Amino acid sequence: MKEQTIHNTRAAAEYLHEQIPDETVEHWQQALINNRRTDRNPPHRIGFTMIGRGAFYTLEELARFVEFEKGRKLGTMKLSPRAMEALRAVGFNERGGSSTGRRFDVTAISRQHDEATGEIFIQLIVNNPHLLVYRLPPEQALEIAQQLIAECGGTPKPDSYQTVTENADVLVKGKV
Questions:
Q1: For the residues 132-143, what does the mean pLDDT come to?
Q2: Position 174 in a domain
Q3: Which of residues 73, 102, 131 is at a domain's end?
Q4: Distance from the CA of 158 to the CA of which of 24, 46, 66, 139 falls in 20 to 30 A?
Q5: Domain that residue 118 falls in
Q6: Residue 124: which H helix or E strand, with range?
Q7: Same domain, 69 and 154
């Protein structure tokens, strides 16, 4: 198990003041206290752990907040609506997002039958950042699958597997 250094509220506030000196240590201490209150809705919630009656913060959580806050302060320039849309799309400065994109959280993929039209389609349910349900024609689903496989380096070669058992109902192959 990896050891982590944790900081109490005062030490965390001092760290934030060192990284973002625009505000005082007292300001950051109050901001951390407000961050823990469930009736407040800060723009970026800093993860913490309660040990006894004290709140403790990991350096990783504090660094993540510093990155968010610096990005927010740089955001004083006016962005075009399209640029703002692009930042929202990748989840920049949002929980679960980064400058390279959001985590793709697929809840379910299933084959469906549209009773009204009789068409077969693939239903893809994504749960991040909010619940979204997509309908893909089978051709599009196959095309996406092929692109994903190609980007991952292709499929395993069939000759790297050997037949373990074979009968009329089941074929089991094992990696050589």
A1: 93
A2: no
A3: 102
A4: 139
A5: 106-158
A6: strand 120-126
A7: no
Total of domains in the chain: 2
As to burial, measured by CB atoms within 10 angstroms (0-12 exposed, 13-18 middle, 19+ buried), residue 117 is exposed
Give the pLDDT confidence score for residue 72 in this predicted structure. Answer: 72
Q: Averaged over 119-131, what is the pLDDT?
A: 87
> Which residues on neighbouring strands pair with residue 122, listed in sequence order?
111, 136
83's tokens: 């640029």
Tokens linked to 16: 């934030």
Q: Where a domain ends, among 54, 85, 102?
A: 102
The secondary element (H helix, E strand) that includes residue 107 is: strand 106-113
User: Do 71 and 124 share a structural domain?
Assistant: no
Cβ(58)–Cβ(47) below 8 Å = yes
Q: Could you give the residue ranges of the DSSP H alpha helices within the chain? A: 9-19, 25-36, 59-74, 81-90, 138-151
